[in-house]
Amino acid sequence: MGTRIEGLGVYLPSEVLTNFDLEKMVDTSDEWITQRTGIKERRIARSESVVDMATAAAEEAIRNAGVNKEEIELVVLATLSPELGFPATACLVQERLGLPPSAMAFDVSAACSGFLYALDVADAYLKSGKKKLALIIGAEKLSSIVDWSDRSTCVLFGDGAGAAVVRFDENSESDVLASKLYAKGSEWRALYRENCGYLKMEGRKVFKEAVNGMAQASLEALREAGLRPEDVDLVVPHQANLRIIKAVAERLGIPMEKVFVNVDRYGNTSAASIPIALYEALKEGKLRRGMTVLLTAMGGGLTWGAMVLRY
Length: 311
Description:
It contains 10 helices and 13 strands. With 311 residues, it is α/β, with parallel strands linked by helices. The termini are close together.
């Protein structure tokens, strides 16, 4: 018995921005970007808003879950690129989807760790018995907050959204087995955005914190679940940088064959990266029912953490 992911959905803008396109915009090269990040291209939302992308991903997740919208009692949306200061983007999506007023809706702001934070909150609500069915969304339009003249950051980020419908099922073997989430506000300057400004990042600092934090949180979550790294069937990490992903896998002693990677196609989509990766892993047959799955992420805040699922 436990919290079960019933359906996944994504939205990815159709416009592709390649490294070769970026060569024409800033002083960089495909070779430089690929070697340092593993990214080859990313999606850019020109006409779509964060609400558009989040709604589209949610619609697909709801269809794939085979549930009625009227059943949804909780909407938690993770984003660091909202269109409005308030209300919450989750409220705007609730309106677009036509959900009833009984579906409480709010945002979480934990940057790239946002989807883990949102899923952990939903898991707590579901296991408390207060809610039965939840919609979790990660949606970002990072192209709107990136300085396209700053080659150190503009090459990293992309746009997109991912969503999951989750419920508490007394008869299911699926569950959130363990979750370890952290924050270190003293390091907020490593990755932040001032009001109406551009995203700013200390790359080396973030790299070090990400590798150390994601690896340690993963080990702690596995320990809490009574598991070891060798028990993991699939790792779905935040898709920030291929070097970070490889370093974390090495620290855990998990072969890259068990790690799902799509950062080459989408870049860093922040809170959307893990649900997009889960969706693609499922479509490719790499994610199957009964698998032990490790999720891990690091984001601005600094926030980080890991979660162990039985999918």
